[in-house]
Each structure stands twice: as structure tokens, then as C-alpha cells.
Inverse folding.
């Protein structure tokens, strides 16, 4: 794996624009945790990543404490006001319909209708994002300002949906590496027209998969595009033993598209390779970042890190879900995420992955310091770079006791682990280091 | 056990007054580590707690490095000045006589007498509290101001005491609970007319025992009223194996009567259930408190926490012994302790005990998060209380891995453990949690 | 061992002057990692310490990754300028010749010569100290100011050295103590005319050896005078098993002669007895000190603490190598080290050694606190010293659980461990403590 090889600014910008373009293509699709929106989304992802395997899990399939729900599809939905004017229209914005709304057609007095209307008073011009997956219900979401101005009278309402046995759809790629040890990337494809949370996750994950495909890989990469919660629960219910045996690190890829912040969410107990790599990437990025607690969790780490599952999964984000004002509203749109924001999210995850690839555990092959001069490892005297190179070399050797991995040494020296990895490789070539397990 | 059920302000105040009333009744009795003063005191305690068992341990009984001393009793003691006036009188204040003074009757020149007089120059109007349990001696204590003004001449002195084989007296109650695991409360009854240190300990312990008697108890409660040091040493010498097997937490109840401070004294190594419950109670009390070191120890934790004994015993106090100016002098009187002070000491210990009762260790019964909605545990959307309830529920589940107990989760969430205990009980009823051990 | 018995100020000053005098005698000798300069130095050390054993290790002897190099000796070396004037003369200062220079005799244009000249531009009047042990090379060192003023023309150069099979010379003393457990002192004798780094190390070590010879010793002391790096590597290659079995603590004695700072360099992982004793000595010295990281290492701790060797070796220094401006230049001369500076270095190491000698691990012989009064250990009431004595006694007993050694208790109480050692000895005499291990 080529580590920390910075693309040119131009290549980086092009990648950012490409990701934003893909998000723009995916944006209008009405996704949910099941249904044709997910299938259409996975179809586009498969176009980008032809190795993607797509799975259909029948409604009613039990998984741990849950059952795969009925499949939901929607054709149309609207509200006509007393004057017959269409004031809320699913075709204008798919956030207008409460996700998983059951079909309805009829007339309602304003007062009756209100029990089915959702707004966000503190953000009066935005349409909030609301779902009711597991309680049969119907509803509309609309700006609070519009809601407040509704005249009394009789409203005609139509929601043309189906909620019936079908299946839950998800996608998976396994990219084999030199080792069968795995890194897991998990992102979700269940949010309708929302951008940072959540189209940024799938588009950055696609970019990471394309990048990984071009690299020699030490680790194998397992990448899943699933609906949040029920998707990860189903996936874990079928693959837990394998994952517990093989996954050394994983990331939930979510909220990686705006350009306002970097964020870190630890695994449940912290300190896993994923946590260490994420923090290492952030610390050496030159960017400030916010360190959240697992108490602030909110996405699929809730499943991956649950007791008895305990996979080493952390999150590296831009502005974290539930912390920014546009969250779960129509304001989380394509203007909120930017090419530069997506590029930053991509790069940070790339660096964390590179750190994992670069990290190794060594033991010295000789007692005491080796003689560098007899091997020509002693650089010409005098330059600062040379002094740093010798310092790196000697410190790698000094801590090559089988207990301290390269990431540990890198943190001690406050340098990127990739810098040490090259030095360590040279020492290994000279038979001064032996890799462990 | 009903946890954190606050009595009404009126009930609380009544309890405070009742405790102060009992202290007032006990105050005049001349207690020591043995003798009729202890018996009389235990008699009053047995009137309050009829299940109290009273034990007599014969003088000369060996216990670890010690031997139960002779029994001491006093009828009278005084000093007549050269003019024949009674200037120091045991009947005015029992602190006037050095505890365990041997009998004496005779005339002494002032200079000879001075070798037997004790004062506290930095507190010139107070009578200090002095004892000489293990070295045969006699003496009087008096205000420094009075001492300085003694005219020269011949003084008549009488101390009418007995120091001869008898017994050491102590009391014990065992209040069985659902489990045989025990909580130990230890308080001492060897101080004469002193109030914060030490009548507050026995009166608050009596109140705790009465309160515990009315509760369903998970733990069994072992409560001892003993003389300090020799009492706990004797008690441990006879019950150590049992205590080491069964005691999960214990408190030395001492200095719980004034209204100026809250204090915490850890067990020797800290971190026991008693330490954690004490700190939890203090942190969630809304009061500031002082955290002492075990180096500041001074009461029966010296024995309970000694190497090889190592019981999980901490102290929760108001103003700690040896830190307040009236300590061990006649100024530590019934005006120093207040109904509110005693009430505060009682409440803090009550909360620590409630925290111990509320603390449990769980494991989830399902992998991944359970489906709350299918169980009706998902509260109506929208209120902040509901959000907190869900957060509590999900966090209890997230840490129900067998390693983190409820106290740990409560400290993470910064909420009282009793709040979590109710939520955990609901989850257990729904078979989502299984209690461990 | 008599601990913390301060010599009189006069005795201390006399010791400082004696150490400085010995440094003055040793200063002119041209030492290197092999050769007659080392032999002559060890001869003087043997005059001071007649039990010193001197060893010769033949060139070509393999040791771990290394081979003992050829022996280097020098008779003369100089540069004649174009006018025939001797402008650089080994006989004026042995730093003028790059250590291990191969012989050369010839004429060189200034430009050719420059490739063999070394200066220190940031310290333009000083001769730098340069060596080339493992790459065949020759060179001269001179002040930058002189170097800049060299006229062009042809220079005559002569270096009259031999570099051929011979041996590496080192010295060792083992001073047996009551136990076979060892303390290691390691210092180096390979630097030519340099004072803080490094004649201070040998002269302070000689003083420590003389002092130790007069003390009853609990530990055995192994003291080595070796060339840096190759000396410690050779020594470890022959004695590692023994050292790993017997050494409880060790110090590299280096840079202990100036009067500007105190410094501490930890062992690789820290926390060894040597680290704890060094920090204890420093903390209770009343002096400020700098705490370096093992990343700042630079002397034989690089070998003693290397993975798999891992001896408990730390360094207690005055101004640490590579941190003071005169380091490795002719300004590190006899005016840089002072009698007071050497005396301070000696004292700090003495205190660390005393702390090691004083440190013991105990277990109480009785459960609960013992009865001090029946043993006369209860001092007369009232003085502050007595209160401190009782506090020390009770705290030693409270932590005599087999896990906390006296150094630990001393750090808790913030007192010198030697103070506790006397108290602990008294408790042991009274059979209240039993020593462990």
C-alpha cells in the first residue's frame, strides 16, 4: 500500500467534485430502510463498484431481537388545501412524507390533520425528517411557517404507498488483501434526500473502495452498504462469528461531507486499533477535531460495539449527526456538503486506513543496538533530516520489544506512522527487525 | 428497598430533632472503653433498637496483639483549692477527669499537681479530652485560663475510681436481607460528654437502623456499637473470616452531627464498593465535600482496613475528627451538633446505602440493541424527560456486559444510580437484562 | 549502611576538591574507545581503587551485532600552513584530531584539506569533538574562526597514528554486600580532554566506590569503567544472564560535574527501582531538576535498556549531554566542572543508592494495629516530632501488606525513605514487621 502519497491538489479537487456529482445523482431518490429507492441506489453503486454483491432479505426474517419489516414503497403523496390547491407534495420533496407512512386517502378537518403533521418550530422554513418504521402511522412533514398559516377547513389527503411483504436490500464487497485479517467499512443507504447525513457516507465509501482497489492491500476490506440499525443488526446476526474472528478495525462512514468540523466517535471501550488509527490520522492532519464520547453515539456503532458483539469500530466524521442545525431536515441538502468537505472526509479515512496498513509489531533480531555503520544505515553527518531519520530508526529499534507497535512509537515521536513504516521496512530488509504475528 | 424517596421537609426536620434529643439524653453519661457508662448507653440504644444484642468480653481476653483491659468505673473526682473551694468537679463535667485515671486521694503542692493537669492553651476556655487507657496514671483536665490562675498552696485531690477485672461491653444487630452479603455499619460508644465526636455516630446509626428495619433489604446489615480501637480489634479477632467472606461494603459512622462540612475518608486502597457509593452519594448531593486521604485516618478504619483485614470500609462524615477547632474538648458539645447537621449526616449515609442497594451488574440477553418499540418501551416522542429515559435505557443496555455495574453507568451519565435502578428493573422485567452474581 | 549521614560542609568541600583534582590529573590523557590512553586512565583508577580488575578484549572479538575494533594509538598530529607554521597541533589539544584517524602524511591544497577539517560555526572559538570509529577516515578539528582565516596554498599534514589489531581495555570491581542482589554503576573512559562529558563520570564513580567500601552494604555493587557503546555491548554480551538475574538497579554515571542543573533520564519503560530511587533522591534534595524522556537518551542506557536486555538502569545527571552549549567541544573543560558541581553529582547518586539500600518490603506480623504502648513505642505526648514519628510508624504498618515497599510509603508521606528505614528497623526489632524477599 502506498501510504500518505498525497494526490496533487488538482486530483484532490477532481475527486471532491466527482463525489459531489455522485451525491447529486443519488439525492432525489426516495430511500428508506427497504424498497425500490434502496435498490435503485445500490444499482448506481454497483455501476461504480461492479464487484458489489446485492442481497435481498425477506420480510419476516428474524435477526437477534428483531424481524425484518415489510417492504415500503411510495408512488405519490400530497395534501390539497380547502381551496383544492396542492400545498404539500411528495414529488417536490420526499421529506414531506413520514417514512413508512401507510396508505391513506380521505378528507380531514384541519384539527384532525394536525395530528399527522410534523414541523420543526426552531427551524421554521425547513421540512423535518421523520419516520415511523415500527408503528403503523401516516404523516406529513412541512415547514413550521407554512403549518402556522394553514387556514381552517377541510383538507384532502392522499398517500399512495404499499407496506407489504417484500425484502430488505443491501450490498457488500469483499476486497481480499495479503492477509485474511479484515478492515470493515460500513455505511448506510436508508436516508432519502439528505446530504451530509446521509449521502456523504456512501459516496465517500465508494471513493475509498475505488482507491483501495488500486492499492496493494495487507488487510482484506469488507465494505457494506446497508440500511441503518436493522441492516447492521441483520448483517451481524448472520456474520458475527466471522467478523469477531477476522476484523481488526472498522469504521462507520457517516457524516463526512460538510466542511465545518472533524469529529471522532470512539468504540464502546475505546483503545481499539480503529480508535488509535482514527486519532492518529486526526492528530497528524493539522486540523482541530472534536472528540465525542460513546454516550453521544447514534449510528451503527450502537450495534457493532454492543456487548458480546464488541467489534473494534469507531467513527471519523466531519460534522457529527445531531450536532449541526440542519441535521435531519431539508436544509441538510446538496449545498451543505461541498467537494472540499467530502474530500476532507475521504482523506481522513484514507489516512486512518493507511495507518492501519502501516502499523506492525516487531521484535529486534539482536540484543543491544545494532551497528548501523556496518550496514550503511548511518547517514551522512550533519543534516537535520538525517538526524531525524537516525532518531526514528533507533527509536523503532528501542521499542521493538513485541509490546509496542509502530503506531505507539509514532505517537511517542509525534510523527505519522507512515514515516516510520518506511524506516521499519528498511530495518526489516536488513534483518534487524522481525515482524510479529 | 425504596430508594431516594425523600421524606417531606417536615419529616426530615422531625428526624433531626429526634436525633438531637437522643444525643441530649446520652450526653451526660460518662462513657469510656469499658464500664457502666457504656452499659447505660447500650441500654438506651436497646430501648431504641430492641433487637440489639449486648455482649460482655472479660478483661484479660487476648485479641490479636492486644488484651481486653480492666474495667474502669468512676463515682466522683474533684480538686479543692488551698482555700478548700472545689475548683474542678467531675460532676460538673466528666471531661475534667483523665479517662482511666487510677484512684487517688491526697494533698499536693501546686507544683506536684501540675504534672497531673492537662489544658489546651490554644483554646483557653475549653476543657480538653484526655485518656490514658494503657498506662496507669491519674489526671485532671481544665481550662487553660483557670490553670494559669491557680494560686500556689496545697490542693486536696480525690479521684474515686475503680480499675479492675470486669468486662468490655458492646452491642450488635444483624438485620437480615434477601442476600447473605452484608453491609457493615460501625460506630463507637466510648466518648464521654462529647457531641460531634462522638454522640453523632451512635444517634445517626440508630436512625439508620430504624430506617433500614422498614425497608425491603437486598443486603443484610450488621451494625456494631463498640468502643473505638479495642472494640473493633476484639470484634475483628472473633469475626474476621465471616466478615471477609460476606461484607461488600461498610462505613465507620463518626462525626456526622455538625452542619459545617461534608467529608470522605477512603478505605486504605480506595475503590471499594463503599468508596464508590460514598463518593456517588456526595457527588449527587449538591454539597461540596472534602476528600481526605487514608493518611488522615483516625478511627476504626485503621483496624478494618489494616493489612490482611482489608474490609471495604470507608467513612462519610460532616466535619472530620481532628480538623475542627472544638475537636476533643468541652466545646464539642450539644450546641455544635444541630438537628440539620445530624439530618445531613443521616441523609448522606442513607444515600450511600441506597446506592449500594441499587447497584447491580447485568448482562444483556440479546446481541445488538433490542427492539424497544415492539415492547412499548419507546416513549412518546418529544419530551426531554422521555429523551433522558431512552438515553438511560440504551446506555444501561450498552454497558450491560458483565463488567460495568450500575454505579459505573450512573457515574458515566452523571445521574443518581437510583434513577437507573428503576429503568434497569423495567428492562429486567422485559427479559432484556439478566442480573449477574 | 549509614544513610543520609551528611558529611560536614568541610568534608564535602574537600571531597569536591579531591574529585576535581583527579579530573585535572586525568584530563590531558588522549582517551578513545581503545588504546594506551584508556590503559593509562584505568591505571590511575586502579591506583585509587586497588581492587579494580582490568580486562583486555582482543580486536575482532564478536559481541552481539558488533566486533571489537582495531586498537587506535596516536603519537603526534599537526598541520603546517603554507608558510610552514604549525597551526594545528595535537600536542596542544588532543581534540584537534578526529578520533580513530588513520595515519596520513602529505601535502594538500587548502581545498583538498577542507574535506578533512571539522568546525562548530555556532561556537567559533571552540574545537569540536569528532570521531570516526567505524569508517576509516582522518581529520582535524579546529575553531571555526581559525578555519575561516586559513590562507590558500599548500598545507603539510601529518597524523602519526596506528590502527591495528590489539585490544579493548576496561575495568571492573565487584564489591560484595550482604546479599548477592546487585546495584550496577557504569561509567565511561573513552572521551579525550573533556570534563563534564566525560571525566566527571569516572571521578564521581571512584568517589562512590570509596564511599561504598566503607559502608556495610546490603547490596553487592558492580562497577564498570568501559568505553561507551562498544564497551557496554561487549560487557552485556558476556554477562547478560548474570546481570538479568541479579541486578535490581543501576545507573549510568555521566555528566555529573557542572553546577548548573540536575537531570533525570528514565529507563526505557520507567518505574524500575533505579528510576524510583533517582526520583526520590531528586525530589528530596531541595533542588529543581529536569525530567528527560527516554527519547532523549544518548549514553549506555541505550544498551542496558534495549529490548531483551531491559536492565533497570536510569541516569542521574547534572547538565545532560547534548543540552549544554559547551557539549562535545573544547569548552567542556576543567573550568566547566567545579568541586561543588562534582560534589552535587556525587551526593545525588549517593542518596539514590542510600534509598535503594534503605528500601525494603514488609508484612505486618499481627492483624489490626499493634499495641504500641505495651512496647514503649508510644512516645511522650505532645511534641511535633513525636507526632511525626508515630505517623511514620503507623503508616509503615498500615502499608506493610507485602505490596508497598518503603519507597512507596516514603513518597506517600513525602519524607526521605531513610527516615522511614530507621523507624521500620525499630518495628522489625519489636517483631511487628517481617521483611519479605
Amino acid at each position: 500500500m502506498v501510504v500518505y502519497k498525497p494526490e496533487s491538489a488538482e486530483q484532490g479537487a477532481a475527486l471532491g467534485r466527482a463525489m459531489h456529482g455522485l451525491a447529486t445523482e443519488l439525492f432525489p431518490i426516495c430511500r428508506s430502510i427497504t424498497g425500490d429507492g434502496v435498490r435503485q441506489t445500490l444499482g448506481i453503486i454497483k455501476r461504480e463498484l461492479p464487484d458489489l454483491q446485492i442481497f435481498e432479505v425477506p420480510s419476516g426474517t428474524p435477526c437477534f431481537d428483531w424481524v425484518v419489516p415489510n417492504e415500503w414503497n411510495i408512488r405519490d403523496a400530497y395534501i390539497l388545501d380547502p381551496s383544492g390547491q396542492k400545498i404539500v407534495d411528495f414529488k417536490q420533496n420526499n421529506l414531506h412524507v413520514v417514512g413508512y407512512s401507510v396508505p391513506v386517502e380521505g378528507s380531514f378537518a384541519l384539527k384532525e390533520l394536525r395530528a399527522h403533521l410534523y414541523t420543526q418550530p426552531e427551524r421554521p422554513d425547513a421540512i423535518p425528517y421523520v419516520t415511523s418504521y415500527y408503528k403503523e402511522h401516516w404523516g406529513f412533514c412541512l415547514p413550521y411557517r407554512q403549518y402556522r398559516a394553514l387556514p381552517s377547513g377541510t383538507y384532502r389527503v392522499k398517500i399512495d404507498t404499499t407496506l407489504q411483504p417484500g425484502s430488505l436490500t443491501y450490498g457488500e464487497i469483499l476486497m481480499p488483501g495479503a492477509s485474511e485479517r479484515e478492515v470493515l467499512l460500513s455505511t448506510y443507504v436508508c436516508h432519502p434526500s439528505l446530504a451530509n447525513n446521509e449521502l456523504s457516507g456512501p459516496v465517500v465509501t465508494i471513493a475509498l473502495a475505488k482507491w483501495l482497489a488500486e492499492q496493494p492491500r495487507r488487510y482484506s476490506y469488507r465494505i457494506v452498504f446497508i440500511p441503518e440499525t436493522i441492516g447492521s443488526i441483520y448483517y451481524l446476526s448472520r456474520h458475527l462469528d466471522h467478523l469477531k474472528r477476522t476484523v481488526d478495525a472498522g469504521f462507520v462512514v457517516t457524516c463526512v461531507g460538510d466542511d465545518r468540523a472533524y469529529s471522532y466517535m470512539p468504540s464502546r471501550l475505546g483503545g481499539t486499533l480503529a480508535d488509535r488509527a482514527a486519532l492518529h490520522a486526526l492528530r497528524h492532519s493539522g486540523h482541530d477535531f472534536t472528540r465525542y464520547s460513546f454516550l453521544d453515539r447514534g449510528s451503527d456503532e450502537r450495534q457493532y460495539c454492543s456487548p458480546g458483539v464488541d467489534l473494534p469500530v469507531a467513527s471519523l466524521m466531519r460534522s457529527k449527526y445531531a450536532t449541526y442545525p440542519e441535521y435531519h431536515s431539508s436544509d441538510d441538502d446538496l449545498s451543505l456538503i461541498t467537494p472540499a468537505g467530502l474530500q476532507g472526509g475521504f482523506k481522513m479515512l484514507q489516512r486512518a486506513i493507511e495507518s492501519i496498513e502501516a502499523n506492525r509489531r516487531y521484535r529486534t533480531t539482536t540484543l543491544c543496538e545494532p551497528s548501523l555503520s556496518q550496514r550503511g544505515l548511518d547517514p551522512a553527518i550533519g543534516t537535520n533530516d538525517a538526524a531525524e531519520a537516525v532518531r526514528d530508526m533507533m527509536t523503532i529499534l528501542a521499542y521493538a520489544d513485541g509490546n509496542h507497535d509502530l503506531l505507539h512509537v509514532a505517537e511517542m515521536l509525534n510523527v505519522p506512522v507512515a514515516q516510520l513504516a518506511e524506516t521499519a521496512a528498511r530495518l526489516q530488509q536488513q534483518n534487524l527487525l522481525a515482524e510479529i504475528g
